[in-house]
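Private note to self, pasted from the team thread so I don't lose it. Backbone tokens:
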């Protein structure tokens, strides 16, 4: 007998039974599922404002002979931009020569040394299951607002899909936004050979063409023919695993350096390769004849660790001649 003379309807009883059975099945099934910690799938960070610029690690390669100068400059950059970095010593040319002969690698000693150095990094990425890493070469300089520029570049939605990201380049690319217009405009001005009374007008036109190109927002675009990229590039964990497993085979079968191999990855089109434009990380080599490329606000120059001002340089080596024209 039910309270107050209430008698439940058959439909209500059936509904309660169904809910009980469903709840019981859900509980059993949930106990069989692995937890989030057990799955442990690494993600590619998209927060460019953290201490590793949104990547899991930042590696900086250096040779034993330039360790002190390299550490001094890189640590100054890291302190100002607020970065955590990990130094990796390069394979020496003598060791590379020995390994080249033993393993019958086809590239020269310098290329073999660089390839083996970066392979060490790829192996560490794979071993630690890092989702991504930024690889820098000792002897680079960066923009003071590097984090903001990378946030702008990665904000276009590529953070979860790139295999390789070229953060620095010595040369322009055909697919790079505005670069064809820049080359064409500078070339046209050079060919025009204006009369003396128009010389000032030509200089002003050239100035505004350059300024418009250099002051555009930092963007990322699909890379097709990158060149001069080994001083600053990022790669995903899956790309690091692929390179770690295939690099030795390529070294034994072809005489190409790392720059060519990375460019080949982009040109073949089987991987998601992107470039950052304009490059916020550039080579700085005081010992070289043509040591640098453009940076709007160099970290090393801002803290008086380099005398030359990179804001006067061409953004790319392949347009340096046209850029210098008055």
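Design output:
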């Amino acid at each position: 007998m039910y309270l107050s003379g209430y008698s439940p309807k058959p439909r209500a009883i059936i509904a309660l039974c169904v809910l009980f059975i469903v709840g019981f099945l859900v509980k059993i099934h949930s106990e069989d599922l692995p937890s989030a910690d057990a799955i442990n799938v690494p993600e590619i960070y998209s927060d460019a404002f953290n201490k590793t610029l949104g990547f899991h690690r930042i590696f900086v390669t250096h040779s034993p002979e330039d360790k002190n100068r390299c550490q001094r400059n890189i640590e100054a950059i890291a302190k100002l931009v607020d970065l955590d970095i990990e130094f990796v010593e390069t394979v020496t040319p003598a060791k590379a020569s020995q390994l080249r002969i033993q393993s019958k690698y086809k590239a020269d000693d310098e290329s073999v040394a660089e390839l083996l150095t970066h392979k060490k990094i790829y192996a560490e990425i794979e071993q630690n299951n890092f989702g991504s890493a930024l690889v820098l070469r000792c002897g680079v300089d960066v923009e003071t607002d590097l984090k903001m520029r990378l946030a702008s570049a990665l904000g276009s939605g590529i953070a979860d899909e790139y295999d390789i990201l070229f953060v620095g380049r010595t040369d322009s690319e055909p697919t790079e936004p505005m670069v064809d217009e820049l080359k064409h405009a500078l070339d046209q001005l050079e060919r025009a050979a204006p009369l003396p009374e128009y010389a000032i007008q030509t200089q002003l036109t050239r100035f505004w063409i350059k300024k418009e190109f250099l002051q555009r927002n930092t963007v990322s675009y699909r890379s097709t023919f990158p060149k001069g990229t080994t001083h600053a590039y990022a790669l995903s964990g899956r790309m690091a695993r692929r390179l770690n497993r295939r690099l030795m085979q390529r070294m034994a079968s072809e005489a190409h350096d790392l720059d060519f191999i990375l460019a080949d990855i982009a040109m073949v089109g089987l991987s998601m390769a992107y470039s950052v434009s304009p490059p916020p990380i550039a080579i700085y080599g005081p010992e070289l004849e043509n040591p640098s490329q453009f940076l709007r606000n160099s970290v090393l120059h801002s803290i008086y660790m380099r005398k030359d001002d990179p804001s006067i340089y061409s953004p790319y080596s392949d347009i340096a001649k046209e850029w210098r024209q008055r």
